[in-house]
Amino acid sequence: MPLDKVKAPFTLPKLPYADDALAPVISANTISFHYGKHHATYVKVLNELIAGTAYEALSMEEIVVRSATDKDAAAKKIFNNAAQAWNHEFYWHSMTPKGGAPTGKIKDALEKDFGGLDAFKKAFSQAAVGQFGSGWAWLVKGKNGALKIETTSNADTPIAHGGTPLLVADVWEHAYYLDYQNRRPDHVAAWLDKLVNWSFAEKNLT
Ligand code: MN
Q1: Going by CATH, does the domain composed of 2-93 fall within 3.40.50.1780?
Q2: I need a labelling partner for 60 at 20 to 30 A (CA). Which of 1, 12, 33, 118 fits?
Q3: Structural domain spans, the chain
């Protein structure tokens, strides 16, 4: 993502596809709230919170990393909004209307570290469905280079802890409730089968 060079005031980044391109797994109606309201609000509130502070001179990624360990009382809100803004841009790019099977280096890595695509999907689905409450399910590259699955709660993000994310699924209810109501397992299964942007994951891997 070109995000790391951008400085405040931040603007809502463009979606990499049309608002109805991910239907029926994610409807244009869900996008209109999730992107047009939730994501937009994280960006707007972040700009308000950092105005006139030292954070104003930093990139989004730097704000996430620095606010994660900042003991100042205002830093938690800055972290929550910056991390949510970063996570959502990463999430939009983790999806494509042309999802399907991985190829190339990411396919090889899934085979090596999970035993193949089906085993990866099973493990990722268990993690995403099992994340209690609001949060995110990630495919990350560990420090030893091996792929692994992680979940984070609320706004938390691997980049705050030195991790290298390859893909993310948003499992906050706002990501699926209009289309799937309480059926998070069905949403995650359809997301894995139809929407994963494997070329984005491969780009992040290499
Ligand atoms: Mn979300």
Answers
A1: no
A2: 33
A3: 2-93, 104-205
Strand 135-141 vs strand 164-170: parallel, antiparallel, or unpaired? antiparallel
* pLDDT at residue 4, as a whole number: 59
- CA 2 from chain centre, in angstroms, equals 15
Q: How many whole angstroms from 74 Cα to the centroid of ligand 1? A: 22
> What tokens appear for 99 in the block?
């999802």
Question: What is the SS3 assignment for 169?
Answer: strand
Interval between CA 198 and ligand 1 midpoint (Å): 20
Single-letter code of the amino acid located at 127:
A
Instruction: Report the pLDDT averaged over residues 97-123.
Output: 97
Confidence tier at 9 by pLDDT (50, 70, 90): very high
Task: Tell me the whole-structure pTM to 2 decimals.
Answer: 0.96
- Report pLDDT digits (tens) over 127-137: 999 999 999 99
Spatial separation of the C-alpha atoms in residues 110 and 139, rounded to whole Å: 10
203: Cβ–Cβ under 8 A, 6 or more apart, which residues?
Answer: none
Fold of 104-205: minor pseudopilin epsh fold (3.55.40)
Strand, coil or helix: what is 95?
strand
- Rounded distance from Cα 112 to ligand 1 centre (Å): 31
Residues surrounding ion ligand 1 at CB below 5 Å: 170, 172
pLDDT digits (tens, 9 = 90+) for 118-174: 999 999 999 999 999 999 999 999 989 999 999 999 999 999 999 999 999 999 999
